[in-house]
Every structure is written in C-alpha cells, then in structure tokens.
From TrEMBL:
Gene Ontology MF annotations: RNA 7-methylguanosine cap binding; translation initiation factor activity
Similarity-based family: Belongs to the eukaryotic initiation factor 4E family.
Lineage: Eukaryota, Fungi, Dikarya, Ascomycota, Pezizomycotina
Keyword Cell membrane: no
Presence of the UniProt keyword Ubl conjugation in the record: no
Biased composition (Polar residues): 1-10, 22-37
Region (Disordered) location: 1-38
Protein name in the entry: Translation initiation factor eIF4e
Gene Ontology cellular-component annotations: eukaryotic translation initiation factor 4F complex
GO terms under biological process: regulation of translation
Pfam assignment, any one: IF4E
Species annotation: Aspergillus homomorphus (strain CBS 101889)
InterPro entries xrefs: TIF_eIF4e-like, TIF_eIF_4E
Transmembrane segments: none
Length: 244
C-alpha cells in the first residue's frame, strides 16, 4: 500500500505561509538563492490570497510494479494508482497536505502526482491522450525544492497563463523517485502544439529559482516526450476504449 497522507497538524494561517515556507526552503549556504526563492514565493502567495485556486487539484500515488512483461504493461493501471487527497482547492490545503507527506519514504520508482481534479494521471485519460510532458532529471539534493516550486507554479496558474492563446492546458505535475535523481514531469494536453510546448519550457526555466534551473539540454537534463511515444501507449488506450 502507498504511504498514507494524514493531517495531524493544523495548517498555517494564510498570512504566515509565505514566511514559514520561505524560511523552510531557504539554503543557508546560499543567501542569494534564499532571497530569490522567498521573493518568488511571496509573489505567488500574494496573488493567491485570499482566493482559492482557479482549478481544484488531486494528489495521487503511483506504486511501481516490477513486472515488466507485456501482459502487465497492458493491465488495468488502477491496480497501481491510489487517490491520496481528492480536493486541494487553496494554498492552505496544499501546505497542509504537502507538509505532512513523508517524502523521504517514497520508494524507488514510485511516483506522486498532483493533477487537476477529474483528470487521472495516466496516458489513456481522455484529457491526456493527445498530450505529453516535459521531464526533468533532478539530482536528489535539489529534487524536493524543484518539485515544490513546480507544483506551486502549476497550481497558481503561472504555466497555464502562457498557454491560453494556444488553447492548451497544463494538467498536472509528477515526481518519480530514481536511484540518484528524481524524474519530475509537467504534463500538457496538446503534444503536437510546438508553440505551446516551447512556451511552457521557457516559462518553467524563467520562473524556477536560479539555483534550480537545469544547466543543459538533452537527455541528461530535460526533454519533452509525447505520451504516444511511450511503449504500451496504444495498448493502454485501446483497453480504456473497450472499458468505456
């Protein structure tokens, strides 16, 4: 079973969130990075308070299955996917969930997703079928800060705002534990729209704190991949179609 997500502590009042989170995320060895990150967070929190998120979000846990046979790759994905929190509607709820989650206990190759409510974090979901995602390989020592910022930027509509004119949508973000890094993904709806894909890339790079930005391109840093390019995509979509 996946790690449970409980709430044993009250959420910080909205007016205190920017102070406590900026302090928690600061790097004592890098004052300039801490200042930049605090400024980024305060800017976002200022936009959000006191209104809820424009979209509601759900948190999912994807338990890796070591069986890589073809039969297993086409098996119902629901056996691996668990809904941990079904409605994250504002910044206080997000931090109540995020701060109580045992991130250090996520097992190798397991994944945590934060997705728009009503969209399942699978290729075959109707919202995802024609989409893809930017994937970032992030060293372990930066992975949690990277995912934290990506999640906030996503839920605060910083990514969505640049895709509106392309009629594209950012549907969610994921972090998957690997041996010496995390694979962190930003999913969008239109995998064949080069303009929106490029705009999303540039916005991610521009809005991340400077010390978290990838230092290069290509497979060793980050890349874009359409869901249809993954092994097992066709089988998953065909199976989902027969069920529905």
């Amino acid at each position: 079973m996946p790690i449970s997500m409980t709430n044993n502590q009250p959420a910080s009042p909205p007016e205190d969130i920017d102070k406590t989170q900026a302090k928690a995320q600061s790097n004592p060895t890098s004052p300039s990075s801490a200042t930049t990150r605090k400024s980024l967070h305060q800017n976002i929190f200022g936009k959000l308070r006191p209104l809820p998120f424009q979209y509601h979000w759900a948190v999912w846990y994807d338990k890796h299955n070591s069986d890589t046979s073809k039969e297993n790759t086409t098996r119902d994905y629901d056996s691996r996917l668990y809904l941990l929190h079904e409605d994250v509607s504002d910044i206080a709820t997000f931090y109540r969930v995020y701060n109580n989650y045992p991130w250090d206990k996520v097992r190798l190759r397991d994944t945590v997703h934060i997705f728009r409510k009503g969209v399942r974090p699978v290729w075959e979901d109707p919202e995802n079928r024609n989409g893809g995602c930017w994937r970032f390989r992030v060293p372990k020592n930066k992975a949690q800060e990277f995912f934290h910022e990506i999640a906030i930027l996503c839920m605060a509509n910083e990514f969505q705002a640049v895709l509106e004119k392309e009629h594209d949508h950012v549907l969610g973000v994921s972090t998957s534990a690997r041996f010496n890094s995390n694979l962190i993904s930003v999913w969008n709806k239109l995998g064949d729209n080069e303009r929106s894909i490029k705009a999303l890339e540039q916005t991610i790079l521009d809005r991340l704190s400077p010390d978290l930005r990838p230092t290069g391109t290509g497979s060793t840093a980050y890349f874009y991949k359409r869901h249809a390019e993954n092994d097992g995509f066709t089988e998953a979509v065909e199976k989902a179609s027969t069920v529905t």
